[in-house]
Amino acid sequence: MQAGIPQHAQSRIMGVYPQKQEGLFMQRIKIPGGRINWLQWRRVAQLASVYSLGSPLHITTRQDIEFHYIRSEDIAIIQHGLAEVGLATLGAGGDSVRNITICAGCDLCPEGFDLMPQAQLVYQYLERQAVIFNLPRKFKISFSGCQQACAKPWLNDLGFIAKPDGLFTVIGAGSLGPKPATGIQLYDDLPAKDILPLCIAAIAFFEQCGDRENRRRARFRHIREKLGDEVFKTELDNRFSQQKIQQSWPDVQAAAGSRNIKSFQRLQLPNGNISAKQAVELADAAEQKSSELRINLEHALELYGPGPIELPEDLAAMSSNPIIIACPGSTSCPHGLVNCWMAGDIIRQSLAGQKQPAVRINISGCPNNCAQSATADIGMVGMLRKQNGITNECYRLYTGGGNGRNNSLSVQGEIVSAMDIACAIKCLLK
Prior knowledge:
This protein is of the alpha+beta class. The protein is built from 11 helices and 20 strands. The protein folds into 3 domains: 7-96 and 258-319, Sulfite Reductase Hemoprotein,Domain 2 (Sulfite Reductase Hemoprotein, domain 2, Alpha-Beta Complex); 111-244, Sulfite Reductase Hemoprotein, domain 1 (2-Layer Sandwich); 322-429, Sulfite Reductase Hemoprotein, domain 1 (2-Layer Sandwich). The strands form 5 sheets. A 5-stranded antiparallel sheet has the order 1-2-4-3-13. Strands 5-7-8-9-10 form a 5-stranded mixed sheet, with helices on one face. Strand 16, helix 10 (340-350) and strand 17 form a beta-alpha-beta unit. The longest helix is centred in the middle third of the chain and has 16 residues, at 229-244. The protein is globular. The mean pLDDT is 94.
């Protein structure tokens, strides 16, 4: 990392954030593309059982894993233990290039392409560039293996969507936060060999022109908003053209997806959480069946294998959970205003035993929109309101978003008390 970066900023680049509880921290682990092997998964569970004070593992919307409630003196031990099995925390937070996300099963989708080689190429090149750890704000890159755009390109600084002909549509300069805006189409027929120079050009553009004074206006899309879409695209394309001619770039062609996987199971984790004990039980059941584990972008684990897996009852039951995506909220985040996980539990219990529609319910604990509520089928953004001198937890409702797979933001609706949220969600589902 570059000299002169403040200590607190360096900690965040290593994925370490202070919790609202004095003296306790969150450690985020970067899992590129959500691909994690069983040795790594078991080490994560083992470290969590020792150092996470009984807190579950939390799976994020960028295919990361988080430990919560860890002590400062244990951080270095945890990071060393992760490194022993090839897991990194550098770039898991802070003003850096964050975890590169990929739709979890793109290499196993008959309509898609395996984009892990492209993502690894970008990741391995960028991690050697010191500039990516001192950006104006975070920078996010995603890869979608087919036109379904499961990796939510419209919410990223650069989102690559594979086309049937092997070329890529590129979406860029989108982000959420208190005032969300989806990205715009930058290119329609980008060859695979141009992915890396485009990433380098875009990051250099961001590093040089991003706002370092006002963090609320410091994302890549704020450069676009300042310049206007057409001027922004022209400036980016000029930098991209210059980058392409500077050297010969590797040409990694995307391989077509496979049809050979016979068994698929999706475990929708309650609020993205799984205990260390459950994590070990999952490994014990699935590893012996030669199944692969993937983390997707919606608080779920995906198991791919040659045959069905007999899971413990509590894990098997997760297959029928509704898709509820919830940030930690006030349980541990200093910015959290409401208890998102409690709201998620209430909604989940109210829907138990019912046939679940393919609807995403996203719950954010504050206007920062960490659970991507502003693009959800049903979004909830936490707030506090006073009534008769009493402060109550409430949620602003949003509906009809495109879940980052297109440029549709959700439509803002009414404000509902936390006590009434289950009834409100049931009404929306009807």
